[in-house]
Design goal:
The chain is α/β, with parallel strands linked by helices. It has 15 helices and 14 strands. Helix content is 43%, strand content 16%.
Length: 400
């Protein structure tokens, strides 16, 4: 089976960003399938030109499509970047031969159009993956306001759902909204993590030493610094924790809001906050090992109750307790695993209290982290989830 993946923000494990698709691609090639990915040469996380050249390793081919360079600019500039990839990836995709399945992933939703068109031209199956509910999230956050654009986006969303041979979602919270919007056959292939990438017994000494964190209770946030991530709440929590000398909050990652957050932390005279740049997945294990606890946070929006953030599963795989400021389906996971403390989204006070509680009883914190590791191995291991994906794809391509 030859699978063509259209994914502008595709990241390999030696790049910053979510590596779900690279991990799945490696699993598929190991099973004897051929995988071709069309991706941007610009990292969606850092804006840096990463791998300009095409590459091919053990059945996985990555083709880089030219895009309008608009990293972290205005909404209009980002839309232009999305449209440029939609067009350039289509032309490159026309040259990919003998394709059995075209896998489009959203957001951005426009690359779903490329995947649909290529699938129909090539007589291949069309799998449409929903990683975030778009345009609902964009509307909720306030980046999509124009009524005409909203109507057009909702029409496009429904069109792709109706014309996909199968719709795949990464969170159970997406099942009902996607079905209501017109998807006929929906499959859940949830986010997860590869526990073999992480060692819960590693204390991350190299990470702690290189960042002057040796004597601290380190609370790590690893991920995007964007509008949705509500990281100003973490800064407010840091201010409330300022009198607790041994607690250090580390914000690792990049994004549109990072410079503003750094300026805000400086203005607030926060000495208990450290900003670090993004690291590739190959270095994430060491960063998480250097943490005593980890934070997952999103804005207090009803829509975000549907999400399964990747970072939470990485935290669990690393055996680190979670301060969770996200309600909904991911709250259910952390509660079932008993691997963290919930704080009401948007509440700096509750986030600070959760951090203080974990720091006050490190043995209990470590026990919670190990519970999360066990729960992930049993329920959200990338290998187990990957097997479900293989069954889905092989069944889809054999369904005539």
């Amino acid at each position: 089976m030859h699978i063509l993946i259209i994914h502008q923000a595709f990241a390999s494990i030696n790049e910053p960003g979510g590596t779900r698709h690279h991990e799945f691609a490696r699993l598929l090639t190991a099973r004897g399938h051929q995988v071709t990915v069309i991706a941007s040469p610009i990292s969606y996380i850092t804006g840096i030109h990463t791998q300009q050249a095409n590459s091919e390793v053990e059945g996985l081919t990555i083709l880089r499509a030219a895009v309008y360079d608009a990293h972290h600019k205005s909404f209009i500039h980002r839309v232009l970047a999305f449209f440029s990839f939609m067009i350039s990836s289509f032309w490159i995709g026309l040259g990919v031969k003998n394709v059995d399945l075209v896998w489009g992933t959203s957001p951005p939703i426009f690359q779903g159009v490329t995947a649909w068109a290529l699938a129909r031209i090539k007589g291949a199956k069309f799998l449409f993956e929903v990683r975030d509910l778009w345009p609902q999230f964009a509307i909720a956050v306030g980046v999509l306001k124009n009524p005409i654009l909203i109507s057009l986006s909702q029409w496009l969303e429904r069109f792709l759902y109706r014309h996909a041979d199968r719709v795949m979602v990464n969170s159970p919270g997406f099942l009902a909204p996607v079905t209501r919007a017109g998807a006929k056959r929906v499959e859940l292939i949830p986010n997860g993590a590869d526990p073999s990438m992480f060692n819960p017994n590693d204390k991350g000494s190299a990470f702690r030493q290189s960042n002057q964190l040796m004597d601290k209770f380190v609370v790590l946030y690893a991920g995007a610094h964007g509008m949705s991530n509500d990281l100003n709440v973490i800064l407010e929590s840091a201010s409330l924790l300022d009198s607790t000398e041994n607690i250090q909050i580390v914000l690792l990652g990049d994004g549109k809001e990072k410079h503003a957050l750094m300026a805000q932390a400086k203005e607030m005279n926060l000495t208990n906050v450290t900003f670090l740049p993004s690291v590739p997945k190959t270095e994430m294990a060491q960063a998480l090992a250097g943490a005593d606890a980890c934070i997952a946070i999103l804005k207090p929006l009803e829509e975000y109750k549907t999400t399964y953030p990747n970072k939470v599963f990485d935290y669990m795989a690393a055996g680190r307790p979670v301060v969770l400021a996200i309600d909904g389906v991911i709250h259910e996971v952390v509660e079932a695993a008993d691997c963290g403390i919930f704080a009401a989204p948007g509440s700096a006070k509750e986030v600070a209290e959760a951090i203080r509680k974990l720091a006050s009883d490190t043995k209990q914190s470590q026990a919670m982290g190990l519970k999360g590791r066990i729960y992930l191995e049993e329920n959200f291991s990338r290998a187990v989830i990957g097997e479900k994906l293989v069954v889905l794809l092989e069944g889809l391509t054999s369904d005539h």
